[in-house]
Specification:
This protein is α/β, with parallel strands linked by helices. The protein has one domain: Rossmann fold, CATH 3.40.50.1820. It is 32% helix and 18% strand. It is built from six helices and nine strands, in the order ββααβββαβαββαβα. The strands form two sheets. The chain has a seven-stranded mixed sheet, with helices on both faces. The chain has a two-stranded antiparallel ribbon with strand order 4-5. Strand 8, helix 5 and strand 9 form a beta-alpha-beta unit. It is globular.
């Protein structure tokens, strides 16, 4: 059984039951508190949204006060296996969340930063039903097994990356955009000029436009 995930959440601004869910997956060595602050930027835009930022299941090898979705060693291919091993915990978290809220994939945006962005893409592309959207900041595509043949769903995807990121090569998001588009995924892609490993103001605004567009289809 996958490890049960939990973390901070922000209820819908309009009160009552949520009409959609924004799941925020943090980066390597961080925790849910690092990303739940994004709710403050998007609550006016999405007043019916529940924002949830679960902590990853493992203490971080390099920062024991934080968490990791999987151990990172870019010199070894095993880190890709780590992403596959982390997927069930997130998938179970989503299933639990949907049971609790009465919502489903079609009302859910799976978002993440850095390692969390990698997991958002990995999990989102492995689901049988399409999400409302996938939003990946400063990440990379670690495709699930069977991609793209087994990826029946084609959710809209937004990729944002700083062009001076010293941690995750910006080219990885460009490669992801090209790969996804060539396989029939609708992709919005934005390069943050002069930005490092962070979410810059222009990237945040671009992501907000994406969220508004996909939410308008509900």
């Amino acid at each position: 059984m996958a490890v049960k995930l939990s973390g901070p959440m922000v209820p819908p601004k309009q009160g009552g039951s949520p009409t959609q869910v924004i799941v925020l997956l943090h980066g390597y060595g961080s925790d849910g508190n690092d990303l739940i602050g994004l709710a403050a930027y998007w609550r006016d835009l999405l007043p019916g949204a529940l924002f949830v930022a679960p902590n990853a299941p493992e203490p971080c090898r390099d920062n024991p006060s934080g968490f990791q979705w999987f151990a990172i060693d870019w010199d070894r291919p095993e880190y890709r296996e780590g992403a596959q091993e982390a997927r069930p915990a997130i998938a179970e978290f989503l299933d639990d969340l949907w049971r609790q809220t009465g919502l489903g994939p079609q009302q859910t945006v799976l978002s993440g930063f850095s390692q969390g962005a990698m997991m958002a893409l990995n999990v989102g592309l492995s689901l049988d039903s399409p999400l409302l959207g996938i939003l990946a900041f400063s990440g990379a595509l670690i495709a699930p097994p069977g991609f793209p043949e087994n990826s029946a769903a084609r959710p809209p995807i937004c990729l944002v990356h700083g062009d001076r990121d010293p941690v995750v090569d910006p080219e990885l998001s460009e490669i992801a955009a090209t790969t996804l588009r060539s396989n029939g995924f609708p992709v919005s892609y934005h390069v943050e000029s002069g930005a490092g490993h962070t979410i810059a103001a222009d990237g945040l605004a671009f992501a907000g436009e994406f969220l508004a567009a996909v939410s308008a289809t509900l």
